[in-house]
From TrEMBL:
<feature type="transmembrane region" description="Helical">
    <location>
        <begin position="12"/>
        <end position="33"/>
    </location>
</feature>
<dbReference type="GO" id="GO:0015078">
    <property type="term" value="F:proton transmembrane transporter activity"/>
</dbReference>
<keyword id="KW-0813">Transport</keyword>
<dbReference type="InterPro" id="IPR001421">
    <property type="entry name" value="ATP8_metazoa"/>
</dbReference>
<protein>
    <recommendedName>
        <fullName>ATP synthase complex subunit 8</fullName>
    </recommendedName>
</protein>
<dbReference type="GO" id="GO:0045259">
    <property type="term" value="C:proton-transporting ATP synthase complex"/>
</dbReference>
<keyword id="KW-0138">CF(0)</keyword>
<keyword id="KW-0406">Ion transport</keyword>
<dbReference type="GO" id="GO:0031966">
    <property type="term" value="C:mitochondrial membrane"/>
</dbReference>
<comment type="similarity">
    <text>Belongs to the ATPase protein 8 family.</text>
</comment>
<keyword id="KW-0812">Transmembrane</keyword>
<dbReference type="GO" id="GO:0015986">
    <property type="term" value="P:proton motive force-driven ATP synthesis"/>
</dbReference>
<keyword id="KW-0496">Mitochondrion</keyword>
<keyword id="KW-1133">Transmembrane helix</keyword>
<keyword id="KW-0375">Hydrogen ion transport</keyword>
<dbReference type="Pfam" id="PF00895">
    <property type="entry name" value="ATP-synt_8"/>
</dbReference>
<keyword id="KW-0472">Membrane</keyword>
Amino acid sequence: MPQMAPINWLSLFITFVISLIIFSTLNYFFVLYQPKKSSIKMKSNINNWSW
Protein backbone atom coordinates (compact mmCIF):
# COMPACT_ATOMS: atom_id res chain seq x y z
CA MET A 1 0.00 0.00 0.00
CA PRO A 2 1.96 3.05 -1.19
CA GLN A 3 -0.43 5.43 0.55
CA MET A 4 0.96 4.41 3.95
CA ALA A 5 4.61 5.10 3.07
CA PRO A 6 4.77 8.66 4.57
CA ILE A 7 3.66 7.30 7.94
CA ASN A 8 6.45 4.75 7.79
CA TRP A 9 9.02 7.46 6.99
CA LEU A 10 7.67 9.62 9.79
CA SER A 11 7.91 6.80 12.31
CA LEU A 12 11.47 6.05 11.19
CA PHE A 13 12.41 9.72 11.54
CA ILE A 14 10.86 9.95 15.01
CA THR A 15 12.64 6.75 16.06
CA PHE A 16 15.95 8.11 14.80
CA VAL A 17 15.51 11.46 16.57
CA ILE A 18 14.54 9.83 19.86
CA SER A 19 17.48 7.42 19.70
CA LEU A 20 19.84 10.32 18.88
CA ILE A 21 18.57 12.33 21.85
CA ILE A 22 18.90 9.34 24.18
CA PHE A 23 22.39 8.53 22.92
CA SER A 24 23.51 12.16 23.27
CA THR A 25 22.20 12.53 26.80
CA LEU A 26 23.70 9.22 27.91
CA ASN A 27 27.02 10.16 26.35
CA TYR A 28 26.94 13.57 28.06
CA PHE A 29 26.16 12.23 31.53
CA PHE A 30 28.34 9.10 31.50
CA VAL A 31 31.59 10.56 30.16
CA LEU A 32 33.76 11.87 33.00
CA TYR A 33 35.73 14.89 31.89
CA GLN A 34 38.97 15.65 33.68
CA PRO A 35 39.28 19.21 34.99
CA LYS A 36 41.92 21.33 33.32
CA LYS A 37 45.09 21.95 35.29
CA SER A 38 45.46 25.48 33.94
CA SER A 39 42.43 26.70 35.90
CA ILE A 40 44.36 26.24 39.16
CA LYS A 41 47.19 28.42 37.84
CA MET A 42 44.78 31.14 36.79
CA LYS A 43 43.28 31.26 40.28
CA SER A 44 46.71 31.77 41.83
CA ASN A 45 47.73 34.45 39.30
CA ILE A 46 44.65 36.64 39.68
CA ASN A 47 46.34 38.93 42.22
CA ASN A 48 49.62 39.20 40.30
CA TRP A 49 48.78 42.04 37.91
CA SER A 50 51.85 43.91 36.75
CA TRP A 51 50.44 47.37 35.95
